[in-house]
Amino acid sequence: MNIAEIHQLFLNCKGVSTDTRNLPANCLFFCLKGENFNGNKFARKALEQGAAYVIYDDIEHDPVHQNALLVEDSLNTLQDLAHFHRNQFNIPVIGLTGSNGKTTSKELIKNVLTQNFDVLATHGNLNNHIGVPLSLLNIKESTEIALIEMGANHLEEIAFLSKIAAPTMGYITNFGKAHLEGFGSLEGVVKGKSELYDYLRENKGIAIINGNDKKQMQQSEGLNRYIFGKDKLAQTQLANSINKNGYCTVHIGEVNITSQLTGAYNFDNLNAAVTFGEFFEIPLTDIQKGIASFTPENNRSQWIKTKNNHILLDAYNANPTSMSAAIESFIDVKAKAKLVILGDMLELGQYTHGEHQAIIDQLKKGAIDHAILVGPHFCASKTEGFSAFKNTAEAKNHLANQSILDHTILIKGSRGIALEQLLDQL
What we know:
The protein contains 16 helices and 20 strands. By secondary structure, the chain is of the alpha/beta class. It folds into three domains: 3-72, MurE/MurF, N-terminal domain (Udp-n-acetylmuramoylalanyl-d-glutamate--2,6- Diaminopimelate Ligase, Chain: A, domain 1, 3-Layer(aba) Sandwich); 89-292, UDP-N-acetylmuramoyl-L-alanine:D-glutamate ligase (3-Layer(aba) Sandwich), CATH 3.40.1190; 302-425, Alpha-Beta Complex (Protein-Tyrosine Phosphatase, Chain A), CATH 3.90.190. Helix 5 links the parallel strand 6 and strand 7.
């Protein structure tokens, strides 16, 4: 059975699933394999639970059913099906990647575009070789714009995802010190993320470019570009400020667009969202509504007021670039008493020790007197003057014996450190 025939089956189904724990009735189920799992083992269970068809690739787990389709590779079939489905639609498909701010930028852009369009956007952070195909398969006849987030931690991943998604537009949030272990260096990050530009260049797409970022301007040379920034040559000219309540505001002409985000590091995310609105000719009043309606969640730049303290929770992920920016912004926060709680930054490879020490040095230079550092990498650094703990459990025990009241607290660390577990003690 070829992809066109499988696509026809897909159209007669109600969605796609790769997990029997989340299996809609009458869906198309793909049996995927990984290092620690084999979805083929659940082929018959999926059919028993109501899947219309099952795509499997392991004859040893043949469910022996007329609606079970044996293919050479289930994952490749899923990816090919997603590409085929995407090509049935002549709509703008926006590819979005970058080292920091991908999900925040995506949600802001979606909030703006949905003011005037039916938008399909990546759900959560389903941005890898499985998540991107699943996102594309959610495109419907009513969809007017697709916004596809693409993540990577190695070279050639963005190139591969771009071939599947075939974006007509693209935006790279930034080039930062993320996944250095996989990319090898910051130069590797730039090359890897710029694979989106390479695809757009080869396929006559258009890129939204932050004109204030010299590296972005350099990497996007030769592209059809729509530029935003302070420069008079930018198609969308804007400025930024922090209002009296501490929230980020974008100024475009005489119009002020106020968000619920804090921290200067969010300006680029907001500027990009406003620019996408401008590009798609959305009225500024609607852009204002879209930006104002965005509320940070999922441990990303969330302000949380507890009984005792005011907390900026940014514990979804961290790398040297995002952590440094968060600290820099937090230094400027006006508060009676401040505390910084940081967790290890993961996947840095040979750069691990130097980057953790650099963060500690930044805290000291920024006159941050009170800091709690969590994780073996921070513990292996020179932490004199700060409290350091090997894991979150140790830090939680420490906080249980403290009396921290009326503090403004920054909490930031990699997902694997799970610093949100400390909230109960604050």
